[in-house]
Amino acid sequence: MAAEGWSERVRKLLKKMNSFHGAGSSKALCLPFMVAGQQVGYVPPAVAKCLHQYPTVFSVSQGDKASPRVELNKQLTSCDQRTAAVQRVLKELKAQQAFPCLKGWRDEMYNVMPYFCDTPFFSMERAATPLLGVKTYGAHLNGYTWRNDEMHMWLARRALNKPTYPGLLDNLAAGGISSELGVRETLIKECQEEACIPASLATLSKSVGTISYTYEGSDGGINPECQFVYDLELPEEFVPQVGDGEVQEFYLWSLDKVREAIGSSDFKPNCAMVALDFLIRHSYIQPDQGRPPQCQLCMVKVKIK
Protein backbone atom coordinates (compact mmCIF):
# COMPACT_ATOMS: atom_id res chain seq x y z
CA MET A 1 0.00 0.00 0.00
CA ALA A 2 1.31 3.44 -0.92
CA ALA A 3 2.32 5.76 1.89
CA GLU A 4 -0.28 8.35 2.82
CA GLY A 5 0.51 11.72 1.27
CA TRP A 6 1.05 14.95 3.18
CA SER A 7 -2.13 16.58 1.88
CA GLU A 8 -4.25 13.66 3.00
CA ARG A 9 -2.68 13.64 6.46
CA VAL A 10 -3.36 17.35 6.87
CA ARG A 11 -6.94 16.97 5.69
CA LYS A 12 -7.42 14.33 8.36
CA LEU A 13 -6.00 16.72 10.96
CA LEU A 14 -8.41 19.48 9.96
CA LYS A 15 -11.35 17.07 9.89
CA LYS A 16 -10.45 15.77 13.35
CA MET A 17 -10.18 19.28 14.78
CA ASN A 18 -13.67 20.13 13.52
CA SER A 19 -15.16 16.72 14.28
CA PHE A 20 -18.13 18.06 16.25
CA HIS A 21 -19.69 19.43 13.07
CA GLY A 22 -18.98 16.30 11.04
CA ALA A 23 -20.94 13.17 10.29
CA GLY A 24 -21.21 10.72 13.16
CA SER A 25 -20.62 13.26 15.93
CA SER A 26 -22.73 13.64 19.06
CA LYS A 27 -23.91 17.12 18.03
CA ALA A 28 -27.51 16.02 17.42
CA LEU A 29 -27.65 14.52 20.93
CA CYS A 30 -26.17 17.50 22.77
CA LEU A 31 -28.39 20.10 24.42
CA PRO A 32 -27.92 23.84 23.88
CA PHE A 33 -26.53 25.55 26.98
CA MET A 34 -28.43 28.79 27.53
CA VAL A 35 -27.70 31.77 29.77
CA ALA A 36 -29.99 34.82 29.84
CA GLY A 37 -31.73 33.62 26.71
CA GLN A 38 -28.55 33.20 24.65
CA GLN A 39 -26.75 30.02 23.70
CA VAL A 40 -23.18 29.81 24.95
CA GLY A 41 -22.42 26.10 24.61
CA TYR A 42 -23.39 22.48 24.00
CA VAL A 43 -23.96 20.01 26.84
CA PRO A 44 -23.22 16.32 26.14
CA PRO A 45 -25.99 13.86 27.14
CA ALA A 46 -24.02 12.35 30.04
CA VAL A 47 -23.39 15.79 31.51
CA ALA A 48 -27.02 16.87 31.08
CA LYS A 49 -28.13 13.76 32.96
CA CYS A 50 -25.79 14.64 35.81
CA LEU A 51 -26.93 18.27 35.99
CA HIS A 52 -30.47 17.12 36.82
CA GLN A 53 -29.11 16.80 40.37
CA TYR A 54 -28.63 20.57 40.65
CA PRO A 55 -32.01 22.19 39.88
CA THR A 56 -31.19 25.38 41.77
CA VAL A 57 -28.35 26.03 39.32
CA PHE A 58 -29.25 24.22 36.09
CA SER A 59 -32.64 23.64 34.48
CA VAL A 60 -32.59 20.65 32.13
CA SER A 61 -35.53 20.54 29.71
CA GLN A 62 -36.09 17.44 27.60
CA GLY A 63 -39.11 15.90 25.91
CA ASP A 64 -42.08 17.25 23.97
CA LYS A 65 -43.19 20.02 26.33
CA ALA A 66 -40.17 22.25 25.91
CA SER A 67 -37.29 22.81 23.56
CA PRO A 68 -34.47 20.54 24.78
CA ARG A 69 -31.89 22.66 26.55
CA VAL A 70 -29.81 23.17 29.66
CA GLU A 71 -30.37 26.62 31.12
CA LEU A 72 -28.64 28.41 33.94
CA ASN A 73 -31.15 29.36 36.63
CA LYS A 74 -32.70 32.69 35.68
CA GLN A 75 -32.69 33.76 39.32
CA LEU A 76 -28.91 33.94 39.08
CA THR A 77 -28.75 37.40 37.56
CA SER A 78 -25.22 38.68 38.19
CA CYS A 79 -21.87 37.46 36.94
CA ASP A 80 -20.68 36.83 40.49
CA GLN A 81 -23.80 34.85 41.44
CA ARG A 82 -23.53 32.65 38.38
CA THR A 83 -19.81 32.12 38.84
CA ALA A 84 -20.20 31.07 42.47
CA ALA A 85 -23.13 28.74 41.76
CA VAL A 86 -21.46 26.98 38.84
CA GLN A 87 -18.19 26.69 40.74
CA ARG A 88 -19.93 24.94 43.65
CA VAL A 89 -21.39 22.36 41.28
CA LEU A 90 -18.10 21.79 39.50
CA LYS A 91 -16.19 21.34 42.75
CA GLU A 92 -18.74 18.75 43.87
CA LEU A 93 -18.44 16.90 40.56
CA LYS A 94 -14.67 17.02 40.92
CA ALA A 95 -14.88 15.50 44.40
CA GLN A 96 -17.12 12.76 42.99
CA GLN A 97 -14.63 12.15 40.16
CA ALA A 98 -17.67 12.36 37.90
CA PHE A 99 -15.85 13.30 34.68
CA PRO A 100 -12.26 12.64 33.53
CA CYS A 101 -11.60 16.23 32.44
CA LEU A 102 -11.93 17.42 36.05
CA LYS A 103 -8.76 15.52 36.97
CA GLY A 104 -6.92 18.31 35.19
CA TRP A 105 -8.34 21.03 37.47
CA ARG A 106 -6.13 24.13 37.13
CA ASP A 107 -7.68 26.78 39.39
CA GLU A 108 -7.77 29.00 36.31
CA MET A 109 -10.98 30.80 35.39
CA TYR A 110 -12.28 31.37 31.86
CA ASN A 111 -15.01 33.84 30.91
CA VAL A 112 -18.24 32.56 29.34
CA MET A 113 -20.10 34.78 26.87
CA PRO A 114 -21.82 34.45 23.48
CA TYR A 115 -19.08 36.37 21.64
CA PHE A 116 -15.59 37.38 22.71
CA CYS A 117 -16.41 41.10 22.76
CA ASP A 118 -19.49 40.58 24.96
CA THR A 119 -19.69 41.20 28.69
CA PRO A 120 -19.07 37.84 30.43
CA PHE A 121 -22.12 36.05 31.82
CA PHE A 122 -19.93 34.21 34.32
CA SER A 123 -16.52 32.58 34.75
CA MET A 124 -15.73 28.91 35.24
CA GLU A 125 -12.85 26.52 35.82
CA ARG A 126 -10.83 26.00 32.65
CA ALA A 127 -10.68 22.21 32.95
CA ALA A 128 -14.49 21.99 33.12
CA THR A 129 -15.29 23.98 29.97
CA PRO A 130 -15.76 20.81 27.81
CA LEU A 131 -18.63 19.74 30.10
CA LEU A 132 -20.70 22.74 29.03
CA GLY A 133 -19.18 23.02 25.57
CA VAL A 134 -18.40 26.72 25.97
CA LYS A 135 -15.93 28.43 23.66
CA THR A 136 -12.45 29.05 24.99
CA TYR A 137 -9.85 31.43 23.62
CA GLY A 138 -6.09 31.51 23.35
CA ALA A 139 -3.21 33.51 21.91
CA HIS A 140 -0.54 31.85 19.72
CA LEU A 141 2.72 33.27 18.39
CA ASN A 142 4.48 32.32 15.16
CA GLY A 143 8.07 33.39 15.69
CA TYR A 144 10.16 33.53 12.53
CA THR A 145 13.52 34.82 11.35
CA TRP A 146 15.87 34.56 8.37
CA ARG A 147 18.91 32.42 7.64
CA ASN A 148 20.75 32.87 4.33
CA ASP A 149 17.77 34.77 2.91
CA GLU A 150 15.39 31.91 3.73
CA MET A 151 12.57 32.15 6.25
CA HIS A 152 12.81 29.85 9.28
CA MET A 153 10.38 29.30 12.13
CA TRP A 154 11.03 28.83 15.82
CA LEU A 155 9.07 25.95 17.37
CA ALA A 156 8.87 24.69 20.94
CA ARG A 157 8.69 21.15 22.25
CA ARG A 158 6.34 20.79 25.18
CA ALA A 159 7.67 19.50 28.48
CA LEU A 160 7.07 15.83 29.23
CA ASN A 161 5.25 16.71 32.46
CA LYS A 162 2.58 18.80 30.72
CA PRO A 163 -0.91 17.43 31.53
CA THR A 164 -1.96 17.70 27.87
CA TYR A 165 0.02 16.75 24.75
CA PRO A 166 3.34 16.18 26.59
CA GLY A 167 6.42 16.14 24.41
CA LEU A 168 4.73 17.39 21.24
CA LEU A 169 5.74 20.32 19.06
CA ASP A 170 4.12 23.67 19.83
CA ASN A 171 4.20 27.24 18.56
CA LEU A 172 6.96 29.43 19.96
CA ALA A 173 4.63 30.76 22.66
CA ALA A 174 0.95 30.18 23.34
CA GLY A 175 -1.58 30.13 26.14
CA GLY A 176 -5.23 30.28 27.06
CA ILE A 177 -6.87 33.62 27.82
CA SER A 178 -7.98 33.65 31.44
CA SER A 179 -10.68 35.88 32.88
CA GLU A 180 -8.14 38.40 34.20
CA LEU A 181 -6.24 39.12 30.99
CA GLY A 182 -6.79 40.43 27.49
CA VAL A 183 -5.48 38.94 24.27
CA ARG A 184 -2.24 40.90 23.89
CA GLU A 185 -1.61 40.77 27.63
CA THR A 186 -1.85 36.99 27.44
CA LEU A 187 0.51 36.85 24.47
CA ILE A 188 3.16 39.02 26.12
CA LYS A 189 2.87 37.04 29.36
CA GLU A 190 3.31 33.71 27.57
CA CYS A 191 6.22 35.06 25.54
CA GLN A 192 8.04 36.07 28.70
CA GLU A 193 7.20 32.96 30.72
CA GLU A 194 7.67 30.25 28.10
CA ALA A 195 10.41 31.56 25.80
CA CYS A 196 12.00 34.47 27.72
CA ILE A 197 11.02 36.89 24.97
CA PRO A 198 11.23 40.37 26.55
CA ALA A 199 8.09 42.48 26.54
CA SER A 200 9.85 45.12 24.43
CA LEU A 201 10.19 42.53 21.65
CA ALA A 202 6.87 40.72 22.18
CA THR A 203 4.95 43.98 21.78
CA LEU A 204 6.16 44.12 18.16
CA SER A 205 4.11 41.04 17.28
CA LYS A 206 1.40 41.58 14.67
CA SER A 207 -2.17 40.35 14.97
CA VAL A 208 -2.90 38.35 11.80
CA GLY A 209 -6.29 36.76 12.47
CA THR A 210 -7.87 33.79 14.19
CA ILE A 211 -8.47 30.10 13.69
CA SER A 212 -11.61 28.45 15.10
CA TYR A 213 -12.72 24.84 15.36
CA THR A 214 -14.82 22.51 17.52
CA TYR A 215 -13.78 18.97 18.32
CA GLU A 216 -15.05 16.18 20.54
CA GLY A 217 -12.53 15.05 23.12
CA SER A 218 -11.80 11.42 23.86
CA ASP A 219 -13.52 11.97 27.22
CA GLY A 220 -16.78 13.00 25.53
CA GLY A 221 -16.41 16.72 26.15
CA ILE A 222 -17.11 19.39 23.54
CA ASN A 223 -14.28 21.81 22.76
CA PRO A 224 -15.10 24.95 20.75
CA GLU A 225 -11.91 26.98 20.56
CA CYS A 226 -10.76 30.22 18.97
CA GLN A 227 -7.07 31.11 18.79
CA PHE A 228 -5.87 34.66 18.19
CA VAL A 229 -2.80 34.36 15.98
CA TYR A 230 0.22 36.66 15.97
CA ASP A 231 3.38 36.78 13.86
CA LEU A 232 6.68 38.12 15.18
CA GLU A 233 9.82 38.58 13.09
CA LEU A 234 12.73 37.94 15.45
CA PRO A 235 16.29 39.25 15.11
CA GLU A 236 18.71 36.70 13.65
CA GLU A 237 20.74 36.72 16.85
CA PHE A 238 17.74 36.05 19.12
CA VAL A 239 17.53 32.57 20.64
CA PRO A 240 14.55 31.71 22.89
CA GLN A 241 15.32 30.27 26.31
CA VAL A 242 13.32 27.86 28.44
CA GLY A 243 11.45 29.88 31.05
CA ASP A 244 8.77 28.42 33.30
CA GLY A 245 9.48 24.78 32.50
CA GLU A 246 6.48 24.20 30.23
CA VAL A 247 8.87 23.80 27.29
CA GLN A 248 11.81 21.39 27.15
CA GLU A 249 13.62 22.90 24.13
CA PHE A 250 13.31 25.10 21.05
CA TYR A 251 14.09 24.43 17.40
CA LEU A 252 14.81 26.74 14.48
CA TRP A 253 13.50 24.92 11.41
CA SER A 254 13.25 25.62 7.72
CA LEU A 255 9.71 25.95 6.39
CA ASP A 256 10.20 22.66 4.54
CA LYS A 257 10.76 20.92 7.85
CA VAL A 258 7.85 22.75 9.50
CA ARG A 259 5.59 21.67 6.64
CA GLU A 260 6.51 18.02 7.09
CA ALA A 261 5.96 18.25 10.86
CA ILE A 262 2.45 19.67 10.32
CA GLY A 263 1.50 16.47 8.54
CA SER A 264 2.85 14.25 11.32
CA SER A 265 1.63 13.11 14.73
CA ASP A 266 4.50 14.98 16.41
CA PHE A 267 2.65 18.33 16.49
CA LYS A 268 0.00 19.43 18.99
CA PRO A 269 -3.02 19.50 16.65
CA ASN A 270 -4.23 23.07 17.10
CA CYS A 271 -0.66 24.40 16.98
CA ALA A 272 -0.14 22.52 13.72
CA MET A 273 -3.16 24.42 12.37
CA VAL A 274 -1.62 27.73 13.45
CA ALA A 275 1.61 26.84 11.65
CA LEU A 276 -0.34 25.74 8.56
CA ASP A 277 -2.16 29.08 8.55
CA PHE A 278 1.25 30.79 8.63
CA LEU A 279 2.52 28.83 5.62
CA ILE A 280 -0.59 29.67 3.60
CA ARG A 281 -0.53 33.37 4.51
CA HIS A 282 3.16 33.68 3.63
CA SER A 283 2.58 31.99 0.25
CA TYR A 284 4.75 29.01 1.12
CA ILE A 285 1.77 26.80 0.24
CA GLN A 286 0.26 27.78 -3.10
CA PRO A 287 -3.27 26.85 -4.27
CA ASP A 288 -2.08 24.97 -7.35
CA GLN A 289 0.86 23.15 -5.78
CA GLY A 290 1.04 19.46 -4.99
CA ARG A 291 -0.93 16.38 -5.90
CA PRO A 292 -3.74 16.76 -5.04
CA PRO A 293 -3.56 20.55 -5.37
CA GLN A 294 -3.10 22.49 -2.14
CA CYS A 295 -6.21 24.55 -2.96
CA GLN A 296 -8.19 21.67 -1.45
CA LEU A 297 -6.48 22.33 1.87
CA CYS A 298 -7.19 26.05 1.58
CA MET A 299 -10.87 25.28 1.05
CA VAL A 300 -11.01 22.98 4.07
CA LYS A 301 -9.22 25.60 6.16
CA VAL A 302 -11.74 28.28 5.21
CA LYS A 303 -14.58 26.04 6.37
CA ILE A 304 -12.92 25.57 9.74
CA LYS A 305 -12.13 29.23 10.38
TrEMBL record:
It comes from the Eukaryota. Residues 136-275 form the Nudix hydrolase domain. GO terms for molecular function: 8-oxo-dGDP phosphatase activity. InterPro entries: DUF4743, NUDIX_hydrolase-like_dom_sf, NUDIX_hydrolase_dom. PANTHER family: THIAMIN PYROPHOSPHOKINASE, THIAMIN PYROPHOSPHOKINASE 1. This is Nudix hydrolase 20, chloroplastic-like isoform X1.
